[in-house]
Amino acid sequence: MASLSAAKPRWHFTRRTRRALNFYAFISPWLIGFILLTLAPVAVGVWLSFTNYDGLNVNNIKWVGTAWYERFPRDRQAVESLKLVFIWTALNTPTWLVLSFALAFIMSKVTRFRGFFRTMWYLPSVIPVVAVAWTWRTLLNDNYGLINQVVNTIRSGTVIHFLTEEALISLTMISVWMGLGNGIVIFLAGLQDISPELEDAAAIDGAGRLSSLRYIIIPMMTPIIFFQLVQSIVFAMQMFALPLLLSPSGGAGLSTAPQKDVFLYMIYAFQQIFQRQRFGYGVALIWILFAIIIVITIVLFWSRRYWVWTEKK
Amino acid sequence: MAALSLDRQKARGIGCGTGLVLITLVLFIPILWMIMLSLKTEGEYSQSALQLLPAVPQWDNYWDALTKIDFAKFMLNSLVLSLLYTVPTVITSSMAGFAFASLEGPGKRLYFGVIIAMLMIPAIVFIIPQFVIFARLRLTGTYWPWFLWGISGNAFHIFLFRQFFAGFPKELQEAAEADGASIARFFVQILLPNAKPALATSFILSFAYVWGDWFLPTIYLNADNTNLAAMLLNGYRNPQGFTITTVTMAAAALYVLPLVIMFFLMQRWIMEGIATSGLKG
Question: Which ipTM score applies to this complex?
Answer without folding.
Answer: 0.91
